[in-house]
Design brief:
Helix content of chain B: 10-25%
Shape of chain B: elongated
Shape of chain A: globular
Distance between the termini of chain A: 24 Å
Oligomer: heterodimer
Number of strands of chain A: 0
Low-confidence stretches of chain B: 1-5
Largest sheet of chain A: none
Distance between the termini of chain B: 36 Å
Helix content of chain A: over 70%
Strand content of chain A: under 5%
Largest interface: A-B, 22 and 25 residues
Order of helices and strands of chain A: HHHHHHHHHHHH
Bound molecules: adenosine-5'-triphosphate, magnesium ion
Low-confidence stretches of chain A: none
Number of strands of chain B: 20
CATH architecture of the largest domain in chain B: 3-Layer(aba) Sandwich
Strand order of the largest sheet of chain B: 6-7-8-3-9-10
CATH class of the largest domain in chain A: Mainly Alpha
Mean pLDDT of chain B: 89
CATH topology of the largest domain in chain A: MetI-like fold
Chain lengths: 274, 368
C-alpha cells in the first residue's frame, strides 16, 4: 500500500545488476545471432561476410542427405516423445495418485536416472548392449535409437506432468467419485483434462530433447543412419560451410516455436487450476 | 401413528471405530460411534476441531472405511461400497468445482456419469439452477463467479442426482457473516423443498441450534448426546455438552432421591429442588447440575422463592438483556440473565444481597 515505509529487497536495485545481466545475455545469445546472420551469407565462409542470400537454405533443401537426416530426426523425435509421454504419464499417476508405498523414493530416483548419469556413460552402455542384440538378431533399424531416445526423454516428460498432478486439488477427483464417476470415468473426465497442459508440456520438452541429442545418437546409430545433429557433426569434420548455419537456424526456429507453445500452454494451465 | 423412529433410518452407524496410524502415531478418530439418522431430517454433527466429524462424513460418503463396525444406508450395509456406488453426495468445504467445466456442466456431471440422456440432464440442470437462483450463470466458468455463487453451484451439483443423503462438511465456513446467514436460510429451504436427508457438519453451536432437526454433539471421537436443539440446550447430558453449547451455570450438589427421570437435589445453600436426570443409571450422591442463566431470576434479599443466595457482583448490560453475576454465599458464581424492561434501570446495584429463584424444570443433572 501507499504507506509502506520500506521497499522489499529487490535484486534489480543492486549496483552492477544491469551490467552482469547484459553480459550474461550477450554470452548466451551473441554466438547464436552470429550463427543466424552467417546462414544468410552469400559466400562460402562462415567467418567473412559477403552479402545476403538464401543460397545455403536452398543448398540444404536440395541436399538429399539433409533430407534423409531430417526425416530420421523427425521420425525419431515423434516416436520417442510419444512413447516417453505415455510412459511418463503413467509413471506420474502411479507416483502421485496411489497410497505412498515402500520404495517410492527409489522409483522416483530410477525414473529420473537419465538426468543424473553422465550421458556418455549411458551412450557407451547402450552401444555395448545394442551391439550384442545386433549380433544376435541382425536388426539394424531405427528401433535402437527410438528405445534409447525414449529412455532419456522420460524424465523430461515426467517432471512437468508430475508437477501438474501435484498441484491438482485431490478433492476434485474425490468429487468426481462422489458424483458416480467410476475410477476410469473420473480419470477420463476430470484428471486427464486437468493434466492435459502438463502432458503437452512434457511431450514438447521430450520432442525438443530428442531432436537435439548428439552423444547417445552418435553411439547408438547403425552405419549409414544419421539424424540432423549427427549429420552436422559429420560435416563439421570435413568442410565447414554456411549450410550448417542454415540447418541450425531452422532447428533453432523449430525449438523456439515448440518452447513458446510450451510456455503458453503451461501458463494457461496454471491459471485454470488456480 | 407409526412414529418416525420405527421407520428404517436413512443412515445408521453401528459401533463404528476408525483408527488412523499405528504405534505412537495412533489416532482414534471415531470411538465406538452408534447413531441413527432419520429419513428427511436435517441432522447436524457438532463438535470442536478434531473430534471426528469429517471422519464420520467420509465414512458415510465412502472415501474411507471403518476400522470396525458397520454403516448402513436404508438398512443396507454400505461400509465397503466405493463412493461412486453410493446414492450419497457431498458438498465439499472447498467446493471442489471442476475448473474445466461451466456451471451447467458441473451441475450435470453426476447425471452424465449415471448415463442419463442429454435432454434429461439439460432439463434437470435448469431446474437446479432455478432452485439455487443461478439461472443467469448457466454458461459461466466456475472461476468467473463469486464464492457464494460457487457454494450454490456446489449445492446444485450435489443435489442434481437426487441423492438419498446429502453430506455437507462446514459448507458455510468460507463465507462472510451476512452471506452465511443467507445461506443458512437457503439450506433449510432446500432441505424442506427436496425432502433429502441432510447431514451437516459444523463447529458453530449457533448454526447448529438454528438449522437442525436434531444435533449430535461429538467430542474426542465419541457422540455424547443426540437430540433436538431444545433437548440439547435445555437438558444437556454431559458437562462437555452444557459447556460447548451456550452459557451455563454449574452447581455442585447432592442427589438425595431418584424416581424415573426426576430427582431431588440438595443445593449448597441447603434448599432442595426438583431436577431432571439424564436417563437411567444416575445414583444418589454428589452430582453436577446445570442451570441456564435465562432460566433463573433475581429476587430481593432473602425471599422465600430463592433457591440460592448471594451478593450481586458484576452487572453487564447487553441491550436486550442484562447479565447479573452473583457471588453465592456458599462459594462459586452464578450468572442470571434477565430481559430488560423499560423501568428496570437502577433496580439492582452492585453489592446488593440477592436471592436467585430457579424456574421449574430448569435444573439438569449431568452424567459426569
Ligand atoms: N488421514 C488421517 N490420518 C491420520 N489422522 C487423521 C486422518 N484424518 C483425520 N485424522 C485425525 O483424526 C481426528 C479427527 O479428525 P477429523 O478431520 O474427523 O476432525 P473434525 O472433527 O472434522 O475437525 P475439524 O473441525 O477441524 O474439521 C483428528 O485428530 C485428526 O488428526
Ligand atoms: Mg473437519
Amino acid at each position: 500500500m501507499a504507506d509502506t515505509p520500506r521497499k522489499p529487497f529487490s535484486i534489480r536495485q543492486q549496483s552492477g545488476f544491469g551490467t552482469i545481466a547484459a553480459i550474461c545475455f550477450l554470452a548466451l545469445y551473441a554466438p547464436i545471432i552470429v550463427l543466424v546472420v552467417y546462414s544468410f551469407n552469400s559466400g562460402n565462409s562462415i567467418a567473412i561476410w559477403e552479402g545476403f542470400s538464401w543460397r545455403w537454405y536452398e543448398a540444404a533443401w536440395a541436399n538429399d542427405r539433409v533430407k534423409d537426416a531430417t526425416i530420421v530426426s523427425l521420425k525419431l523425435a515423434v516416436s520417442a516423445s510419444l512413447i516417453a509421454t505415455v510412459v511418463a504419464t503413467m509413471a506420474a499417476l502411479a507416483t502421485t495418485r496411489t497410497e505412498p508405498f515402500r520404495g517410492m523414493t527409489a522409483i522416483y530416483a530410477a525414473i529420473n536416472q537419465p538426468l543424473m548419469v553422465p550421458e556418455i556413460v549411458t551412450a557407451v552402455a547402450l552401444l555395448i548392449f545394442f551391439a550384442i542384440i545386433k549380433v544376435h538378431t541382425g536388426y539394424q533399424g531405427l528401433g535402437y535409437l527410438i528405445a534409447a531416445h525414449t529412455a532419456f526423454c522420460i524424465p523430461f516428460a515426467y517432471l512437468p506432468i508430475r508437477a501438474r498432478l501435484e498441484n491438482m486439488d485431490l478433492s476434485l477427483e474425490r468429487a468426481a467419485a462422489d458424483l458416480y464417476a467410476s475410477p476410469w470415468q473420473a480419470f477420463r473426465y476430470v484428471t486427464l483434462p486437468l493434466m492435459a497442459p502438463g502432458i503437452m508440456a512434457g511431450a514438447m520438452l521430450a520432442f525438443v530433447i530428442s531432436l537435439d541429442d548428439v552423444v547417445i545418437t552418435e553411439f547408438v546409430k547403425s552405419g549409414g543412419q544419421d539424424t540432423l545433429p549427427t549429420y552436422m557433426l559429420g560435416q563439421l569434420r570435413r568442410i565447414i560451410s554456411p549450410e550448417i548455419n542454415a540447418i541450425s537456424t531452422v532447428l533453432l526456429a523449430i525449438s523456439i516455436t515448440v518452447v513458446t507453445v510450451f510456455f503458453v500452454l503451461s501458463r494457461r494451465g496454471n491459471k485454470s487450476s488456480g | 401413528m407409526r412414529s418416525v423412529a420405527d421407520a428404517v433410518a436413512a443412515v445408521s452407524a453401528h459401533q463404528v471405530t476408525k483408527v488412523f496410524g499405528s504405534g505412537s502415531d495412533r489416532v482414534v478418530a471415531l470411538d465406538d460411534v452408534s447413531v441413527d439418522i432419520r429419513a428427511n431430517e436435517f441432522f447436524t454433527l457438532l463438535g470442536p476441531s478434531g473430534c471426528g466429524k469429517t471422519t464420520l462424513l467420509r465414512l458415510i460418503a465412502g472415501f474411507d472405511h471403518p476400522t470396525s463396525g458397520r454403516i448402513d444406508l436404508e438398512g443396507q450395509d454400505i461400509s465397503y461400497l466405493p463412493p461412486y456406488k453410493r446414492p450419497v453426495n457431498t458438498v465439499f468445504q472447498s467446493y471442489a468445482l471442476f475448473p474445466h467445466m461451466t456451471v451447467a456442466e458441473n451441475i450435470g456431471f453426476g447425471l452424465k456419469m449415471l448415463g442419463k440422456p442429454q435432454s434429461e440432464i439439460d432439463a434437470e440442470v435448469s431446474k437446479m439452477l432455478k432452485l439455487v437462483k443461478m439461472e443467469a450463470m448457466r454458461d459461466r466458468a466456475t472461476s468467473a463467479i463469486s464464492g457464494g455463487q460457487q457454494q450454490r453451484v456446489a449445492l446444485a451439483r450435489a443435489l442434481a442426482p437426487k441423492p438419498k443423503v446429502l453430506l455437507l462438511d462446514e459448507p458455510l465456513s468460507a463465507l462472510d457473516l451476512k452471506l452465511r446467514k443467507e445461506m443458512q436460510i437457503e439450506l433449510k429451504r432446500l432441505q424442506s423443498e427436496t425432502g433429502i436427508t441432510f447431514i451437516f457438519v459444523t463447529h458453530d453451536q449457533e448454526e447448529a441450534l438454528t438449522m437442525s432437526d436434531r444435533i449430535a454433539v461429538m467430542s474426542a471421537g465419541k457422540i455424547l448426546q443426540v437430540g433436538s436443539p431444545r433437548q440439547i440446550y435445555d437438558h444437556p447430558s454431559h458437562r462437555f455438552v452444557a459447556d460447548f453449547i451456550g452459557e451455563t451455570n454449574f452447581l455442585e450438589a447432592e442427589l438425595t432421591s431418584v424416581s424415573k427421570r426426576v430427582g431431588k437435589l440438595k443445593l449448597g445453600s441447603g434448599t432442595t429442588i426438583d431436577a431432571s436426570l439424564p436417563g437411567d443409571g444416575v445414583a444418589k450422591g454428589p452430582v453436577t447440575a446445570v442451570v441456564r442463566p435465562e432460566h433463573a431470576n433475581l429476587v430481593k434479599g432473602k425471599a422465600a422463592a430463592a433457591s440460592l443466595t448471594g451478593k450481586l457482583g458484576n452487572i453487564v448490560y447487553f441491550g436486550t438483556d442484562t447479565h447479573y453475576h452473583v457471588a453465592l454465599d456458599d462459594g462459586g458464581e452464578f450468572i442470571v440473565r434477565m430481559q430488560n424492561a423499560r423501568d428496570d434501570a437502577g433496580r439492582w446495584s452492585v453489592g446488593d444481597a440477592v436471592g436467585v429463584s430457579i424456574d421449574k424444570d430448569a435444573v439438569q443433572v449431568l452424567r459426569d
